[in-house]
Amino acid sequence: MRRWPALALLLACGCSGPKRIEHDQLENEMRRLRSLASEVALFRELQAQGRISRAFAGGHAAYLRRTAEAEATNLEQARPAPGVESELGRARELARRLVSELQ
Amino acid sequence: VKKLVQLTLGIMTALGGFVDLGQIVFTMQAGARFGYALIWAIALGAVAIIIYMEMCGRIAAVAQKPVFAVVRERLGRRLGLATLVGSNLLNLLTCAAELGAIAIVIHLLTGLNERIAMIAGALILGTLIWLLSFQWIERTFGLAGLLMIVFGVAAWRLRPDWGALAGGLIPGLPEGGSKAVLLYGFFVVGIFSALLMEYEVHFYGSGAIEEGWTAKDLPENTIVAVSGIVLGSLLTCALLALGAMVFLPQGIFPALLSTTALPVALASGPTVLRLALLGILACVASAAVETALSGGYNVCQFFGIKWGKNKPPRSVPQFTALWSGMLALALALALTGLKPLTIVNFSIIFGAVILPLTYYPILTAAGDRALMGEHVTKSWQHLLGWIFFGIIVLIALAALPLMILTDGGQP
Q1: What is the mean predicted confidence (pLDDT) over B125-131?
Q2: FRET label pair with B204: which of A45, A46, B70, B100, CA 20 to 30 Å apart?
Q3: What pLDDT sits at residue B228?
Q4: Which of B273, B407, B411 faces A52 most closely, judged by CB atoms?
């Protein structure tokens, strides 16, 4: 019975600590971020051409910003697996740039 | 002339009511990831839903039996009850997702706060269901859904590669290793399931009874089912083509509902963009109404309780309580803040898993000479029905593993 509290503590520590991010997951994150960056560029272009209504522009920009902020938060909280530190750094940088672009 | 007008109205209604949130998102994502390569999945799903919808309308017109009366008879009480629970859970999830989508679209159109838009949207839908007859509910939302044609016009104006589009009718495996193949499989399942969503046949069969169809209406049943779905599928192909033309070359994977309207802005401008948003609004509102009503229809038909939208609400109290309860529960679920696209993604895959339990009873009932008499399914049609049932079973078996292996369809 004494083992249960220790196990629970171990699990709690394991679950509450920063999420470890592997190479594959980071590739997926980068793909999502590049997709988001391309969408932001398309959106800005359409906006500049006057092809988007004002209400739509405000609403869509807010949805894009929320998505970018969620990605940035995930990446900031992630702990890199060995060998992916610089990759994670690049992803964090891209996410931060997107968030500030959408402010 | 009156008959012709009714028929045209029926086809237009079927076309306008064909597309829902799941179809809009899944097909555009499929185009954004695989180009035109999944056109064949839309064609296959369209043939399947034509066959089963025609059977469903025929059973209702000839035997005067709605889908869940047939489910109970063919599957027995225990398995029938499990199907009822699964179907209504699916209706609830779909309705919640559509209400969430209504809020997003109203916000994009007017800038109104999403939560207020969601509550107002649900109240307006509830009032409309309460006040309108079945025919007017069907016509109002179906005809408003015709605004989705602007997506077809946008696809036309952006000049698709017709050769590549036609090439998409032939199935093939994508390049990019096992991950790409799994994702391709996930989108096949998603497109097929979105086209065959159960609530469509529940609503169609119940509607046939609401409108008092008899064997005399069978030609109309065939024409409406075939024409409405063929035209609706062309619209679905246009959504996929927009994904292929606008998003694929730029490496964009549309993960937001608002993103799906960008191709229309690119092809036209702000006025047409507003029309596209109104079209999406009509489609998702129509699906919310159909799922809420289906929730009521299914329970009443299964337990033999009096039902009918064309009856005064107070004369069918349980039915009225059931559809309004479904709408209220869906609103509560949507208000928790769950993303509509996350819910719809899950509901499409969950829907795929329970598809066989709805389509098997329809297939066997329509082919039962004792029940259908001279209107029993023709042998070629019955054979096609069984072939498609085999595909439905494969889709049901593959749905959950593919969802897990692709992390819910992440590119």
Answers
A1: 96
A2: B100
A3: 86
A4: B273
Tokens matching residue A50 = 């006057």
For residue A36, give how far its alpha carbon lies from the nearest alpha carbon of chain B (Å): 7
Q: Mean pLDDT of all residues in chain A?
A: 84
Interatomic CA distance for residues A78 and A39, integer angstroms? 25
DSSP B311: S
Evaluate whether B63 touches B274 at the Cβ level (below 8 Å): no
CA distances from B91 to B155, B296, B351, B395 (A): 31, 10, 9, 19
Which amino acid is it at B51? I
CA atoms within 13 A on the CB side of B111: 5
Q: How far apart are CA B71 and CA B54, in angstroms?
A: 17
pLDDT, tens digit, 9 for 90 and up, residues B227-275: 888 888 999 999 999 999 999 999 999 999 999 999 999 999 999 999 9
Residues B56-67 have a mean pLDDT of 94
> 45-104 in B: which are within 8 Å (CB) of A?
104
- Phi and psi at A91, nearest 5°, equal -65, -45
CA proximity to B366, closest of B134, B48, B70? B70
Nearest to B274 among A53, A58, A59 (CB): A53
Mean pLDDT of B88-97: 95
DSSP string, B58-106: HHHHHH---HHHHHHHHHHHHHHHHHHHHHHHHHHHHHHHHHHHHHHHH
Q: For residue B112, give both structure tokens.
A: 């109104």
Structure tokens at B260: 């799906």
Query: Mean per-residue pLDDT for B124-133?
Result: 95
A35·B252 Cβ contact <8 A: yes
Interchain pair B108, A52: CB under 8 A: no
Q: Please determine, for residue A87, whether its predicted confidence score (pLDDT) is greater than 90.
A: no
Residue pair B250/B31 in contact (Cβ under 8 Å)? The answer is no
Q: H or E stretch including B205?
A: helix B198-210
Q: Do B270 and A59 touch (CB under 8 A)?
A: no
Q: How confident is the model at residue A13 (pLDDT cuts 50, 70, 90)?
A: very low
User: What ipTM score was computed for the predicted complex, to two decimals?
Assistant: 0.87
pLDDT confidence of A4, banded at 50, 70, 90?
low
| pLDDT-derived band at A24, boundaries 50, 70, 90 | confident
Length of chain B: 411
